[in-house]
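Most newcomers find our protein records easier to grasp once they have seen one. To make this concrete, we reproduce a full record directly below:

===
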Amino acid sequence: MPAGALLGQALGWRAAFWAVALISLPAMLALFGLGSFAGVTIGGRLSDTRPMRVLIPGGIALLAGWVLFTATAHSPIATFLLVFVQGTLSFAVGSTLIAQVLYAATQAPSLGGSFATAALNVGAAVGPAIGGATIAAGLGYRSPLWVSALLVAAALVTAGLAQVIQRLRSTPREETLPKPSRSKTMRSPPGSTRTRSPPPSQMHDQTSDDGKRAYTVRQIADKIGVKRTTLNGYLRVTSPKGTHG
């Protein structure tokens, strides 16, 4: 305070505020950098084994932090503390998201990593641009904090919808398949012997043999002048049982 008063008397009251800003800005950047280092460390340790414990609680805490920041931006102590906390949460969630993108893009890890890093850099450029536009529009110096909160909320909603769609796609659809028809087979009574019909080839051979035998009996009967019935009965009596004469 004495140094600020002395500087204000020598260079004007604006000089004191510029001096505080020049001192505070590097301090806040240093705190944000320390928070970023802590966030990357936490994300690196948990992104492989427990990614959802980082993404879901971290995303909700990040949203709550920006909302709290808008309410306590007038307090220097709260500002310095939340700069560190928000840096930690931002880089913990961000590094875990990049790790999940690499796990999802196993067929093209270089392309997946480049897209994830590019998206992070686009967000880092678009966010301050929107925040500056809100200040230029006369919405106040706390409006960038509200922009940050809205962007985090939009990211959480998008992640939730993507998770629901992924679960719906991965759920196997139950298809009703027709039951195989069981052919009804005639069962023989107990103790009975079931006779099987011969294959078609054997039936053809048997028919051919019967045809040849019938033709031979008719031919012999015509030659010797005997009735076919008499000759056929004679052959049946004289032939061995179970064979064709």
Q: What stands out?
A: The two ends are 138 Å apart (CA to CA). The helical segments are 2-11, 13-46, 51-71, 76-104, 109-136, 143-170, 200-224, 228-238. Residues 203-214, 241-245 have pLDDT under 50 and may be disordered.
